[in-house]
Amino acid sequence: MELILQTGLEHQEKPVNAIAQVFENTHIEQPSQYFENPIFDFSYPENYQPAICKIQAETNLHHSLRKTTHAENGCLNLDIKMETGTGKTYVYTHIIYELHKRYGVNKFVVAVPTLPIKAGAKQFMGDPYVQRHFKETRGYNANIELCELKAMTVKKGKRYFPSVVRNFVEGSNQNTNKIYVLLVNMSLLTSGKLLSRDDYDFGVQGFYRPFNAIRVTKPFVIIDEPHRFQREQQAYKKIEEELAPQCIIRLGATFPQITTGRGKNRVTQTDYLNLLYDLNACQAFSQNLIKGVAKEHFEPLSSANEKVKIIAIDGKNSVSVKHISGTAASRSFRLEKGDSFSVVSEELSGLTIFGIGTGFIQLSNGQEKKTGEEFTVDIFSASYQEQMLRLALQRHFETERKNFDRNIKIKTLALFFIDYIDSYRGGWLKEMFERLLGERLQNELQNPDNSEEYYAFLQASLADLSVCHAGYFAQDNADTDEAIAEEVNDILHNKKKLLAFKDADGNFTTRRFLFSKWTLKEGWDNPNIFTIVKLRSSGSDNSKIQEVGRGLRLPVDEYGNRIGNEEFMLNYIVDFTEAEFANQLVAEINGSLPQATPGILSHKD
């Protein structure tokens, strides 16, 4: 099955044209070296700022967002805001082709924050079908040569210069049908010495330090998920100072926030730099570009109202907490890094202290708690999470049946965010899920309205419950277990297999329930996620928005066609501590646009 790419979609054409038009009146010099990009002269703002202002007006950008900034140190910053699920990866790939066609730019660095995002970008840009689409359907007489930078193991006595950096730098601008894209994740920019060391056995173009070699190509940099690359952080500074790009293009649904002033004068605003296009969630939903969201939650199971309060943080060594209950006297405990909260309450057996900082602790579920803050015990109980799993399976099969009974079927997937990796990898959560899944499948098989094919699909699922689900967690990247490696490959690299009903031999592919901790957030998505279940609470608003975003993309059918002429809903199931999140999200999204349309999300309590 191929994913069918559509052309001429207005919401994708506008940002591509906006980026390309910025440079129309800029003086451009031809490169003096075969490995360089053309040289763009941004020293005269009057050559590009009028174009930016014109584009902002043409794209109906609200007047409060029509701000322009000068190029700093010869680098021009441009921003594109696109709601999750509207084709951001397609857009920046299209931008690469368009800038090469119009201006001869053939050296791009694509920077992403995480490995899952990197895998998705690699899968898309390197896909032969995508290459054919841009060459044959879109008419670009060029192909992308993708250079994926990976961590290297340096052998004793030998220091081999990274070959992908060599290939990227040596790519010649005389070869007019080649575009060289260096794909790099954040950790390779900021940690280790892969790009910064200068003691390799061989170099390229006289440079033994990879950062310096990339720098001389005078690259254009594309940043995916800009909220993870705040300008004051190391990753962004490495891009600015070490790569010294001519232009930085940021694309994402969320951008960093900057705060200025103090007290009554304190102002927090989004850190846009020459924003050219703003496709927010309200517009995306009203244009039928994303799913709507139906939120559900359960109230606490117990009337004890158990809570844990952070009393004091003693340096970076220990923390004092208090167990508060409506039915018993309060008790105090002192915990250290790595300790489990099970000593406080047996319901918290999987929750540990991941780290202790100045004035805060980090929990193993990714949340940070400061002195005086508290959290509810109930949401961590197995019985509470069992209720959430039961509801999730009910909603999944309701949706799956409808999608299966269509004239052209849609494979239906579900995504679960969990707290504890060990609870899934051979633990109680995995056992509970398979038990509940088996019960639900037995129930579904009794439905007299089952078609013969759907009945067979359900039977195949019941025959091997373990194949129906898979997980991906950060630690899996170093795991040597073949079964885990297959799960990771399906989730990160084999989207087509997840979307297909049968394999090449005609056997049903029943894997459709995916588990993760927080690894599958920004950048990873699958268009056929119809149910998201949060068995853990997340921390920041950006984190919550990104998690919902994994299921917003419109689905594709069994032949890979995107379905854009119908309304689809995402089942979003959370615990009671996030019960009002959907409403808050609507307010936050609408608050970002002075004239936003209310009602992007539908809610069911």
Please describe the topology of this protein:
Layout: H1 10-22, E1 27-29, E2 39-41, H2 49-58, E3 76-82, H3 88-103, E4 107-112, H4 115-126, H5 128-137, E5 143-148, H6 163-170, E6 178-185, H7 186-190, H8 210-215, E7 220-224, H9 234-243, E8 247-252, E9 257-260, E10 267-270, E11 275-279, H10 281-286, E12 292-297, E13 307-314, E14 318-324, E15 331-336, E16 353-357, E17 360-363, E18 368-370, E19 374-376, H11 382-404, E20 413-417, H12 421-424, H13 428-445, H14 452-463, E21 469-472, H15 482-493, H16 495-499, E22 513-516, E23 529-534, H17 541-549, E24 569-574, H18 581-591, E25 602-603
Parallel strand pairs: 3-8, 3-11, 4-6, 4-7, 5-6, 7-8, 12-24, 12-25, 20-22, 20-23, 21-22, 23-24
Antiparallel strand pairs: 1-2, 9-10, 13-14, 13-19, 14-15, 16-17, 17-18
Helix pairs in contact: 1-3, 11-13, 13-14
Give a written overview of the molecule.
There is one protein chain. The chain is of the alpha/beta class and 605 residues long. Helices cover 31% and strands 21% of the residues. The protein is built from 18 helices and 25 strands. The strands form six sheets. Strands 5-6-4-7-8-3-11 form a seven-stranded parallel β-sheet, sandwiched between helices. The protein has a seven-stranded parallel β-sheet with strand order 21-22-20-23-24-12-25. β5 (143-148), α6 and β6 form a beta-alpha-beta unit. α1 runs parallel beside α3 and α11 packs parallel to α13 (428-445). The longest helix is centred in the middle third of the chain and has 23 residues, at 382-404. Mean pLDDT is 85; it is low at 586-605.
